[in-house]
Amino acid sequence: MRDLAGGFGYLLAGQRWVLGHGRWLGFGLLPGLVSLVLYAGALIGLGYGADDLTAWATPFADDWSSPWLGLFRGFLTALVFSLGLFLAVITFTAVTLLVGQPFYESLSEQVDRTEGGEVPESGLTLAQELWISARDSLRILGRVLLFGILLFALGFVPVIGQTVVPVLGFCVSGFFLAQELTSVALMRRRVQLTEQLALLRARRMLALGFGVPLVLSFLVPLVAVFLMPGAVAGATLMVRDLVGENGENGENTERGQDQDRGQNQAQGQPQGQAQGQAQGQGQPQGPAQGKSLSA
Question: Which residue from 181, 155, 157, 288 is spatially nearest to 235, judged by alpha carbons?
Answer without folding.
Answer: 181
